[in-house]
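mind reviewing this stuff:

——
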Amino acid sequence: MRRASIESVEILVTESFYSVLKTLEKPRIFYRLACFSLPERDPLGAHLGRIQYHLLEGRRLKGKIEDWELCLIEFKKAYDEAKTLRDQLPDANEAKYRFIGVLGILISIIAGAVSLIALVI
């Protein structure tokens, strides 16, 4: 029973961590063009480091039967850090749609400028 609860919490934390990493793999310019701001790199790196530390510590304690409660505490700390960081980051789908909207506006402006130039010439 303990093992099942520990592994399910570990899976939850790992998925939360990888969703944060997936959001961060896009370049910063993508989010700036979509009118979003990302946290500064130093606090961002500190959050990621704490998540990794607590995740690794929880995995280390997972194998010890007498430390299962400490294992869950470490996984909870990792989850809280991931949730805090996730709340600071923009939603990937919303950023994608905003980026497409900005790109559409830019293409419209360029097309309008080209048509005006062609009309004048």
Notes: DSSP finds five helices and no strands in the chain. The CA atoms of residues 54 and 77 lie 6 Å apart.
